[in-house]
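Q: Could you fold this chain for me?
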Amino acid sequence: MAVREKYATFFLAGIYFGIPAIAVQEVLEYLKVIRVPLAPPALPGIINLRGQILPVLDLRERLQLSTAESRSLVDTRMAVVRTKEGLLTLLIDRVGEIIDVDSELFEPPAETLKPGVRAVTSHICKLENQLLLILDLVKLCQLPEQAPTPVRVEKDATQTVSSG
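A: Sure. Below is the predicted structure, expressed as structure tokens.
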């Protein structure tokens, strides 16, 4: 028996994505992101939402999508979503709509998807005019491990240490 589920949809780098609508707390106009030193590129910073500090996840960076095209702050929105770890702010290009999707339309993610997108896509839905990629919020919150940048320490050959 097919189950109908509601998804909040949005666009990112021209791709149509969806997340379970029940996970979305609110959608905001773009707020100033306060940079966090040494944070991974996918987590550019935090926002202060009515006194609550929320991390911001840059979906373009997280999904390894093109960041070459400039992001228009006129259309850019922030979706505040509920996760097991707490609230998270997703940086998205443009808001879509809330749609009902029949579970019979679900297919596994295609092998042709970019690896960063395929890794966090739970399934794909073939709609009338486009494909909808449903994101897995649990996987989305798990940032891939990045190799630490080697720190190079140069010793000054003329430096002497004296104990005193």
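A (continued): Residues 4-141 form a domain with the OB fold (Dihydrolipoamide Acetyltransferase, E2P) fold (CATH 2.40.50.180).
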